[in-house]
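Re: beginner question about structure tokens

> Can someone show what the tokenized structure looks like for a real chain? I only ever see the sequence side.

Sure, here's an example I had lying around. Input first:
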Amino acid sequence: MQVDIWSDTRCPFCFIGKKHFEKALQAFSQNESIKVYWHSFQLDPDMKTDLTKNHYEYLSEVKGFPIEQVMQMHDNLIQSGKNAGIDFNFDDVKVANSFKSQMLVQLADHRGKANEMEELLFEAYFLHGKDIDNVDTLAEIGGKLGFSKEEITNAVVSEEFLNLVNQDISEASNLGIKGVPFFVFNQKYAISGAQPTHLFSEVLEKSWSEFSESQSDFTIIQEGESCDTDGNC
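And the corresponding structure tokens:
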């Protein structure tokens, strides 16, 4: 069964949602039969990388709120992160456009490592204050999954990966997705936002039930000689 996830690597709720989903998936009895696909999304495609500002300062400037108010608004988010096992470090988060990091996820997807790359990018951005718009930083991150610096350098200027990112963003728009994280189960049921683990568990169970039924929902036109699973031929 397929689960599609739209995410932005600079979205804190995407990081939390990933943790909640993975906890539900780990406990799900059929987890080995679930294929997860990560899709690119940009919450602020026009954002200019500016290493002179941290997360709080940027939001204060954009929203027009005093920085103290912005920090106070993050109290619940920080606590939600702790509950999910994430120790957000917004004081050190660098203001960085996420498009290149999305291209890195597309590269990793070609080797079945998109999930691991998402995790490393989230950690780099939210925990370690890394500039995810910097090629050397991305090469360091990608190196942890076995990618060479040359592969990373080529990926972030690749027309192929640029197009794949834009295709994901376009598909999100066609589906009416306006915020992330956004999870689609079995191309039928959707969860928007970093919902609690139990909700992910419920939707996994419901989606799997319908998926497994659909796999055997066919009509045999004609039966001939065959072998069965009991060894009878």
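Each token stands for a local structural state, so reading them left to right follows the chain. The beta strands are 2-7, 35-40, 50-54, 94-95, 182-185, 189-192.
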